[in-house]
Specification:
Layout (H helix, E strand, L loop, with lengths): L3 E3 L2 E3 L1 E3 L3 E3 L9 E2 L3 H4 L4 E8 L6 H12 L9 E4 L5 E4 L5 E8 L14 H7 L15 E7 L5 E8 L5 H15 L39 H7 L2 E8 L1 H12 L9 H16 L7 E9 L16 E9 H6 L2 H13 L3 H14 L8 E6 L17 E4 L6 E6 L7 E8 H11 L2
Parallel strand pairs: 9-10, 13-15, 15-17
Antiparallel strand pairs: 1-2, 3-9, 4-9, 5-8, 6-11, 6-16, 7-8, 10-11, 12-18, 13-14, 17-18
Helix pairs in contact: 2-4, 6-7, 6-9, 7-9, 7-11
């Protein structure tokens, strides 16, 4: 157990051996279909929940509740497998979920803001199977409860993105929390993912800018190789957002502007400049969007991925030199594409061509502002904070500014020199 130096202090975490938690009663067996939306993201989402109160029995309570809730969310106790067609599929092995209890030798204050990812902290607070070397070997769900000397605790979760998106993942955690409080599960998951099966024959009706290959004409990669990657959080308060909206609408080209569009436009422009992209460099903005409201056939508590990206592509010169209304307009046009036919056509496109996504010149925006993490009360109150334990270098996550506030918190990763430039450009 090596001590981790963080925020001017030291933290040592003692992890006990994992216990495999299985559903407490009989669940289906066989194989569990994954849609093309599930297939596209076979990696682990890592999240950390920070709780300001705890108890000696917190580990036992969460472990027992997990066994109960897995009866509803039984695929999470299975294993990833490869189908005869070469696609990912879940084998309902009832292998169970690795559950770890841990103790930290310090106060939880040392963690600081858990919305900002720190790979070293993540490794201390989220359990990863050291023997798992491939996607197939990686558990679909892991859970770790870390108790701190101050009596508070953190919950670290690793969950397969092929099993959940943000909404499904949050429904699972909130259902687990309800169970821990002795309440019935209100978001009973709907498991038939064949509702999002690709059409035969495919009906592809749109081009998809998401998959256009962008050339690194600015040699941005050398910047990533030369500088250390740093993570940082920026607060855009209500006044900053209001001023950006007013600037976007001042020319009359944009009639309305959401807070999401305003903040995304600011980040897209500033990040492109901070990375020293040349004017002729193409830059791609990919927006992750929950399409449940667009897919009328999906039941309310559909369990699985119902997120697609819509994209905008332009030159860095256009983005920088034209008014902020240009960026806002590009964002709005991309979002307006999202209807049921666009989504169905995109799934057909992906299944037909199996295109690869590249991070070159690309910013991916994921908004967590509407995820109901405030309902994750396991009996000791709602979490005070919720953050991602890992952030891909092209990803930017939007959080609420804080309780009772109307701004947004933006978390992103950049090479050190670019982060310093970004901070000056956004002037937060």
């Amino acid at each position: 157990m090596e001590a981790l130096t963080i925020n001017g202090g030291a933290m040592t975490v003692r992890k006990f051996n994992p216990i495999m938690v299985q559903p407490e009663s009989e669940t289906p067996d066989g194989f569990y279909f994954l849609s093309s939306l599930d297939q596209a993201i076979p990696f682990t989402i890592k999240t950390i929940y920070r709780y300001e109160k705890g108890g000696d029995n917190v580990g036992d309570v969460l472990k027992q509740a997990l066994s109960k809730v897995l009866v509803h969310y039984y695929p999470l106790a299975g294993s990833m497998a490869i189908s005869p067609e070469g696609s990912f599929i879940v084998e309902l092995t009832k292998k169970g979920v690795p559950f770890v209890e841990a103790e930290a030798d310090c106060s939880m204050d040392i963690l600081g803001d858990v919305r900002v990812p720190d790979p070293d902290v993540t490794s201390k607070l989220i359990y990863s199977d050291p023997m798992a070397k491939t996607i197939v070997e990686t558990p679909l769900l892991t859970a770790q409860v870390t108790k701190f000397k101050c009596g508070r605790f953190a919950l670290g979760i690793g969950i397969s993105h092929s099993l959940v998106d943000g909404v499904s993942g949050m429904n699972f955690v909130n259902s687990w929390a309800q169970t821990a409080r002795g309440k019935p599960v209100t978001a009973v998951p709907f498991h038939d993912r064949t509702l999002l099966k690709s059409r035969v024959p495919p009906q592809i009706k749109y081009p998809y800018d998401d998959f256009i290959e962008v050339t690194d004409t600015s040699d941005t990669e050398s910047l990533y190789q030369r500088d250390p990657l740093v993570h940082k959080l920026f607060l855009f308060d209500a006044d900053k957002i209001k001023a950006t909206k007013e600037a976007a609408m001042s020319e009359g080209k944009v009639r309305s502007c959401s807070s999401f569009a305003a903040v995304t436009a600011l980040v897209w422009r500033a990040r492109s400049e901070a990375l020293r992209m040349k004017p002729h460099q193409l830059t791609k903005l990919r927006i992750m969007a929950d399409v449940r409201p667009k897919l009328k056939t999906l039941p309310e508590h559909y369990f699985g991925n119902a997120v697609v990206t819509t994209a905008s592509l332009c030159s860095v010169g256009e983005l920088r030199e034209r008014p902020i209304s240009f960026a806002v307009e590009q964002i709005q046009k991309a979002v307006e594409l999202l209807d049921e036919e666009y989504v169905r056509s995109r799934m057909d496109f992906v299944d037909t061509y199996r295109p690869q996504l590249s991070s070159v010149g690309t910013l991916v925006i994921s908004s967590w502002t509407r995820l109901a993490y405030g309902m994750s009360d396991f009996g000791w109150g709602d979490p005070s904070q919720f953050g991602c334990g890992y952030l891909a270098r092209e990803l930017c996550v939007l959080f609420p500014e804080g309780e009772g506030k109307k701004g947004m918190a933006v978390v992103l990763a950049l090479p050190l020199s670019a982060m310093n430039a970004f901070e000056e450009l956004v002037q937060v």
